[in-house]
Amino acid sequence: MMLNEGQLTEHTEEGFQPGVCYDGDNVRLEGLYPDELSAWRAKRVWKSALESYFLLECENDIEFDVQSDPTGSCYKLLCDFKTACARYAFWRITNGQTPEAQYLIETAHIPDCDARKYDFLTAADLRPTQKNEPTMLAPANNRAAAVSILTMVKRLVHILGNKSRF
């Protein structure tokens, strides 16, 4: 399914940032990916995670849709949570209650291979689609700590990457 012009403008105008966003008003997860394969891989992993962690039935509780922008340079995976059980699962994911499921959703597009093993460490965190929504897992008093941990992980990945060449 193709998106109409302007539907991805809020993401493409600011610069494309792959990752997973949540829309609390529409009770929806949105994955933004640079290629179609990543979007379909993410759909498979999201479906599996939602079924196993929350016992949701994909036929009744949730609805998936993979869309692309008119140029084919951005693919969007949409997951709408339809039932009360599904909405509760959405709330748990977006409020840090299920870090295992959240991690699977955030890293679902990354292939499980040696060449991409460090991508799991630097995958983008779940973030709100709207600027005024609170950021997950990083309250105001812990943002500096979260940034320093991310910086430390990136340095560690860089060091480990350099040592593996010797």
Major sheet: arrangement of strands: 3-4-2-1-5
List low-confidence stretches: 1-13, 132-141
Order of helices and strands: HEEHEEHHEH
Strand content: 15-25%
Main β-sheet, in a few words?
5 strands, mixed
Backbone shape:
globular
What is the compact description of this entry?
The protein has helices at residues 9-12, 36-54, 84-94, 99-106, 143-163; strands at 19-23, 28-33, 62-68, 75-81, 127-128.
Topology, pairings included?
Elements: H1 9-12, E1 19-23, E2 28-33, H2 36-54, E3 62-68, E4 75-81, H3 84-94, H4 99-106, E5 127-128, H5 143-163
Parallel strand pairs: 1-5
Antiparallel strand pairs: 1-2, 2-4, 3-4
Explain this structure.
The chain is of the alpha+beta class and about 170 residues long. It has one domain (about 10-165). About 40% of the residues lie in helices and about 15% in strands. It contains five helices and five strands; from the N terminus they run H-E-E-H-E-E-H-H-E-H. The protein has helices spanning about 10, 35-55, 85-95, 100-105, 145-165; strands at about 20-25, 30-35, 60-70, 75-80, 125-130. Strands 3-4-2-1-5 form a five-stranded mixed beta sheet. A hairpin with a 6-residue loop joins strand 3 and strand 4. The longest helix has 21 residues, at about 145-165.
